[in-house]
């Protein structure tokens, strides 16, 4: 995922950018991110997405954790979580448990954009800022409600944001942007497939119908591309479905609560911020309860295994839990009281399985699959 932005910029001729993924060159690019479109899901349901399934492409890894906030940060900065510091859906920073998607205090909804300034939480240059500095205009086409969000400011800043209401104006805004200049990078984001997957489960009837809508979206954009433009389709993560007996409830399990001051992350990957004297006990308790259903590692063990990339930037280490829990199979660690809505989700993501990690990188030009 961290290689997508630099590779697109290299194809656009931006100085200092390197193509690490073998993408074709083009003067104009639409980078379409479909939230929740895992590679394994696309292959399993290719009949519902004939256009996407026909495109040339390969799977790439989303990075850890395989969740929207982290993956978009990796795409938007060209760096992995250990460097950009957006280490999950929720994580501890400056005494707050930050919900990155809403940029609010987890569990309370308190807006933290003034206390935790997004441009300071993630201060590194984005690929969009690099594109503009290299003479390539950037348009970001995304739902209006996230156009000025903390996450957008933190990891997608640099371009002109164009908020949209639905798929109709998303398509219109993308095709308009690609005709506004002789060079252009247009980032477009579609979230509904992920939402359907959470509510009904990946591969459900509703999910498959939504996949068909996404396929039509991509095909319509591809068919409307100017002659010198290219469509690149990718995603932020895949998804797994959790059954009732896959759920382990932190809020009703005293052994899991012992020594844990703050619980971050989400159902498939949890950060345990523990009392200093209790870290070993926390590790033992979680391994005892979860057994083979998850990997339970101390922070340094997870870092040493490269989960967050080869480098950990100053200040990022403390954002990672003292203990990191990555679920196996379809296990989820829920919070029935503190996170009641999330706990009812059918579809989940965040961990290290191929179903969550692998996402497509597909290329089309003028409605036809291109090389990659």
Automatic annotation (TrEMBL):
Q: Which Pfam families match?
A: Phosphodiest
Protein's UniProt name = Alkaline phosphatase family protein
Species whose genome carries this gene:
Kribbella lupini
